[in-house]
Design goal:
Blueprint lengths: L3 H7 L3 H13 L4 H20 L5 H18 L14 E6 L7 H12 L3 E4 L6 H11 L3 E5 L6 H13 L7 E5 L15 E3 L2 H21 L1
Parallel strand pairs: 1-2, 1-3, 3-4, 4-5
Helix pairs in contact: 1-2, 1-3, 2-4, 3-4, 5-8, 6-7
The protein binds cobalamin.
């Protein structure tokens, strides 16, 4: 039955997909299992789009299905939101890329972990990232990128942050479907993954470590 969700998403059956997802959530499906089913459905839509079998409107609908299911699933609910944050993450989707589903999932999960997140949104220019780092002095700069065409802007961002000396005592993190270790060679990036849990874990470990160091001084 749960595999049916993949086909409902791939066939853009919004209402049926939401109803089945709701039933699966109520029947206690594991978050990771539900997440993988949705990603498989989106991958099928992506393939159809690549083969010209569906169009931008279909991508939009598939995004809506994913957003509503992820919202219902409420990944990683945790009570200590907002009280005494363990650190600050500045998050944004790079310039010329308007995909935000992945970014929003990460932002929600980081906030649920008691991390203060400043969300710059999508299509964020390099200058805007640089300015925001100067203003907010975050511990981590997290960038989301799904569009291959936007990789050059990631390179520009790395160089701009380094040139301005804004990578001292902070980390630059990249994630999103574009992440590919062989393809992306950006020396300023400390860590890259398109795995949700790896990304959350990296932030938690780095921020807790940094906080312990500062409390020892
Ligand atoms: C939904 C969708 C859209 C929606 C987005 C809605 C929204 N609100 O975001 C809309 C309709 C806007 C859209 C538009 C377009 N799209 Co589109 N889209 C998709 C689709 C189907 C799903 C993407 C998605 O949301 N995945 C789900 C999220 C959860 O996955 P994710 O982003 O990878 O995020 C996860 C991890 O990577 C990680 N993560 C994400 N960010 C970060 C950051 C950090 C720091 C960390 C640690 C982790 C992390 O956490 C998330 C959870 O695990 C993909 C196909 C696919 N399966 O990927 C095509 C796809 C990405 N789109 C594509 C294209 C070509 C376009 C358009 C150019 C189409 C057009 N002609 O207009 C436009 C581009 C607009 C632009 N400039 O950005 C291509 C991109 C090809 C490429 N590699 O460059 C794809 C791959 C489809 C295809 N196969 O051709 N799209």
């Amino acid at each position: 039955m749960k595999e049916q969700l993949i086909e409902l998403i791939a066939d853009l059956k919004l209402d049926e997909a939401e109803v089945l997802a709701e039933d699966l959530i109520k029947s206690g499906i594991e978050a990771q299992v539900l997440y993988d089913l949705v990603m498989e459905g989106l991958a099928k839509i992506g393939k159809k789009y690549e083969n010209g079998e569906c169009y931008i409107a279909d991508l939009i609908v598939s995004g809506m299905i994913a957003k509503s299911i992820f919202a219902h699933a409420n990944f990683d609910q945790d009570e200590n939101t907002g009280k005494n944050p363990i650190g600050t993450v500045l998050f944004g989707t790079i310039y010329d890329d308007i995909h935000d589903i992945g970014k929003d999932l990460m932002v929600d999960a980081l906030r649920n972990k008691g991390i203060h997140v400043i969300d710059l949104g999508v299509d964020v220019k390099v200058d805007k990232f640089v300015e925001a780092v100067k203003v907010h002095q975050p511990d981590i700069i997290a960038v989301s990128c799904v569009m291959t065409n936007s990789i050059p802007y990631l390179q520009d961002l790395g160089i701009a942050l380094e040139t301005e000396g804004l990578l001292k005592n902070r980390r630059l993190l990249l994630g999103g479907a574009v992440v590919n270790q062989d393809y992306i060679k950006i020396p300023q990036i400390d860590f890259m993954t398109n795995n949700f849990y790896e990304g959350i874990q990296y932030c938690e470990i780095y921020l807790k470590g940094k906080r312990e160091c500062s409390s020892d001084e």
